[in-house]
TrEMBL record:
This is Histidinol-phosphate aminotransferase. Residues 35-355 form the Aminotransferase class I/classII large domain. SUPFAM superfamilies: PLP-dependent transferases. Keywords: Amino-acid biosynthesis, Aminotransferase, Histidine biosynthesis, Pyridoxal phosphate, Transferase. Its EC number is 2.6.1.9. It comes from Marinobacterium aestuarii. One of its GO terms (molecular function) is pyridoxal phosphate binding. It catalyses: L-histidinol phosphate + 2-oxoglutarate = 3-(imidazol-4-yl)-2-oxopropyl phosphate + L-glutamate. It comes from the Bacteria. Homodimer. InterPro entries: Aminotrans_II_pyridoxalP_BS, Aminotransferase_I/II_large, HisP_aminotrans, HistidinolP_aminotransfase, PyrdxlP-dep_Trfase, PyrdxlP-dep_Trfase_major, PyrdxlP-dep_Trfase_small. The keyword Ion transport does not apply. Pathway: Amino-acid biosynthesis; L-histidine biosynthesis; L-histidine from 5-phospho-alpha-D-ribose 1-diphosphate: step 7/9. The gene is hisC. GO terms for biological process: L-histidine biosynthetic process.
């Protein structure tokens, strides 16, 4: 080709490993000719979309020839109603991964440091590396974040700290008291990105609401998504909430039409569908109990989770088990790329799906 394009890429991108998503059911169908596949690999809502959201998206299809509202006015109004957030504190994203990237783009220069924990969500290392910034990864404690270690890792070069609460893939979470003690000690010049992708699922009364903490901490950015409890992963909508100044910065780097018309309409509508959210949480509660009981009966170690998934230790390499589950039409998530080679992450599905997953897992483990 006459040119070494890899050498011309930025140093960050040269060393980048792309994110590996959960295996799509259609891909497994093509590869193995299987039908009746269940996918418990991407923490998607097993109920399917809310009928209210579906109707709103369908109605929005009539305007596919038009650019969407670049300001997302109506969705921001709905978010204000629902969460009490001022529209000028909201940045809309094409999924919350999009806003995570906007944050990196707005704040990170080569050589800046970013602190996050071992076993943290893989998007943080990717956007850190893509910005040619330096990752400072602290050791986990009981699979969760060690906030003392994270604080100790902060230097004058630290620009961002990433914390997912609850964390993916481990499901571990921080209490309000732990998080506030951390924020109280964090220099105000360091921005904490609190990724609350699974916050709706938490049932711990001491679980913090990041949106409530925004007034207290000017250096806090909270990210939320419509992909999980709200059941709109396929449409790609999420948002960041932060003070006006940070929000202004994020909107400077945001592409004007980053959220599609049907996505804006569906997200706005689904916020009104309380019954769907209630059904989602009830399904998750029952499924979580069922999966944890079943996994424990198999003698497996389950990490306590506040999300819509559980991470289970098999006490042996999980790769071959994952493969044998695939061959039997059950897709779960290997987490070896998180340095957890003996674990699998299983999303909570419908009762029949969880049951089949447990049965097939038992079959594979006892073979
Ligand atoms: C699923 C997930 C997200 C959400 O991604 P979207 O881009 O909003 O679909 C964000 N953070 C974590 C930790 C997640 O697991």
């Amino acid at each position: 080709m006459g040119c070494d394009f890899i050498a011309r890429a930025t140093p960050g991108v040269q060393g980048l490993q792309p994110y590996v998503p959960g295996k799509p059911a259609q891909e497994l169908e093509r590869e193995l000719g299987l039908t009746d596949i269940i996918k418990l690999a991407s923490n998607e809502n097993p109920l399917g979309p809310s009928p209210v959201a579906l109707a709103a998206a369908q109605q929005a299809l009539a305007e596919l020839h038009l650019y969407p509202d670049a300001s997302g006015y109506r969705l921001k109004q709905a978010l204000q109603q629902h969460y009490g957030l001022s529209p000028d504190c909201i940045t809309l994203g094409n999924g919350s991964n999009d806003v995570l990237e906007l944050i990196a783009r707005a704040f990170l220069r080569p050589g800046d440091e970013v602190v996050y924990s071992q076993y943290a969500f893989l998007v943080y290392p990717i956007i850190t590396q893509a910005s040619s910034a330096t990752a400072v990864v602290t050791e986990a404690r009981d699979w969760g974040h060690d906030l003392d270690a994270m604080l100790a890792a902060v230097t004058e070069r630290t620009r961002l700290v990433f914390i997912a609460n609850p964390n993916n893939p481990t499901g571990t979470w921080l209490s309000r008291a732990q998080l506030c003690a951390f924020m109280d000690a964090l220099p105000v010049s360091v921005v904490l990105v609190l990724d609350e992708a699974y916050t709706e699922y938490s049932e711990d009364p001491d679980f913090p609401d990041g949106l409530e903490l925004l007034a207290r901490y000017p250096n806090l950015v909270v990210t939320r998504t419509f992909s999980k409890a709200w059941g709109l992963a396929g449409l790609r909508v999420g948002f960041a909430a932060a003070n006006r100044e940070i929000t202004d910065l994020l909107n400077r780097v945001r592409q004007p039409f980053n959220v599609s018309g049907p996505a804006l309409a569906a997200a706005e509508a689904v916020l009104q569908d309380r019954a769907y959210l209630a059904r989602t949480l009830e399904t998750n509660r029952a499924g979580m109990r069922q999966l944890i009981d079943g996994l424990k009966r198999l003698g497996l170690a389950v990490i306590p989770s506040a999300g819509n998934f559980v991470c289970v230790g098999l006490g042996r390499p999980a790769g071959p088990v994952y493969q044998q589950l695939l061959e039997r039409g059950v897709i779960v998530r290997p987490v070896a790329n998180y340095q957890m080679p003996d674990h699998l992450r299983i999303s909570i599905g419908l009762l029949a799906q969880n049951l089949r997953c447990l049965q097939v897992l038992e079959e594979v483990l006892s073979a």
